[in-house]
Each structure stands twice: as C-alpha cells, then as structure tokens.
Description:
Distance between the termini: 72 Å
Order of helices and strands: EEEEEEEEEEEEEEEEEEEEEE
Oligomer: single chain
CATH topology of the largest domain: Immunoglobulin-like
Strand content: over 45%
Largest sheet: 7 strands, mixed
Amino acid sequence: MVFVCLVWAIKLQAAPSVRIAWDANPETNIKGYRIYYGVNLGGSTNVIDVGHQTTGTVTNLAYATGYFFYVTAYNVFDLESDPSQKLLYTTPAFQPLSLTTDDYLIALVPSVVTLQATLKGDHQPGTTLSINWTQGAGQTTLPIANASTLTPAISIGSPGFYSFTVKVAEGATTLQKTLYIDAYQATAATGATPLKLDPPFYLADGLVFSWDSIANHTYSIGYKRDLNDAFWVLIARDIASQGDKTYWLNNVTLPSTAFFTIFDLP
Length: 266
C-alpha cells in the first residue's frame, strides 16, 4: 500500500497538468509505481508507469473537469499493490490570455531600461504564440534588444518622451499594450533628481506618502522593484503641493517589495 498526496500547479500551457507525490513503499523489492486516473471511477482508467520514483505528472487534461487519481506499487515479480486512497480533483476553467505592462516610466539618461510585460492565462491548443515590441513616439529611434520576448531592453541615450508597444498574437487573438517613458538628464536643475521622501505609513484605506514641498509645484511618485533598475515605475503624477509638506494617499496595489521616490519634474 502507498500513501498519495496531490500537488498541482497550472502554468501557461496548452492544457492543465496535475503533479502527484506519494510516500515510498517500505518493501525492499519495489520496482516501480503506476498512476491511475480518469473522469469516472466506474469507467475507463488511464495508467502511467513512472518507474522507481515517487512523483509523477499527468498532462493534457481537460479544463473544468473532475478527475480521480490513485497510485499502486509493483515489485520485481510484477505483483501490484492495492490502490492508494483515491483523490478527486477538478481542473480549473480555461482562462483567456491577458496582457499587462507598466503604464509610465521615468528614466535618467543614459541608461538601459528593461521593460516588463506579464502574460497570464492559457494557451489555445494548436496555436503559436508570438511577441513583438515596437517603438512609437520618440525623438530618435532606439534599439530594442530581445524584441520578441516579454522583457526587452531599451538603450536610452537622449532625454525625451518615448513610447513602446508590445503586441502578443495567438491564433485569432491579438493583445496589445503601450507604455510610455519620460527620460531626463539627471540634474538638480531639471528636477529629475529624486527628492527625499518621508517613510510611508499605512492607513486603513491605503499607503500615505509625505515629503517636504514648495508652494505652486507639482510632484510625481515612482517606485523601483529593484534598486539596480535604471527606471522608476510612475504611480502618480502632477500632485499639487499642499505647502511646506504634501501628503498623498495611494490605494493602488503595489509589489510586495518596492523602493519609492519623489520627483519635482519640469
């Protein structure tokens, strides 16, 4: 007899998969294990022989369908154990692809900015996924390294306003997102140098930022996911000064790890 537990993970792929793990049979002459699965306990059963290992993956399952799973052990004489306890699991429903990117970035030049797009959902069976980044606005045409991936690198050598669009195509489905980059020379005179931001504090309805400010100025707030990033993701712009001290409440979901800064941009 073997004891089986179910561990599952659904990734971006053509169909759901289930990974199963179990405790090894204590007998010394065990040759291998078999995974049995199907959609009806009284109907046809599929079998996968995984050899002498205690994990196995069942692939190409149907979406939104209930399955049963159990495991048996067999020894060197091909004698098979009783089934383990049966596990029931329903695969998730098909999730159409969705595409997200950062909306607005602030970069200081010269720098190499690695853009980030995120693709979620399930592939359509029998289709090919293609990714392509192109430049829209910009004073000069910038080289895009790895333009066919979700994380291309953009080399920015001159200040200016730039836009880049990522297009993801799969079969008859086309997704498109555009992000914008304001690139500044890093000097105190232009206001592109980050200013001191007080430690943020939490309220019931969001995260509060505060900073020393100047009357009749407007400010922008950005964050870095990593201190080594060459850009800030903008979360607010044109925040009007409230006098010597300005407060701003953010209620947008932010990464679990982020490093914030404030700009007084021209």
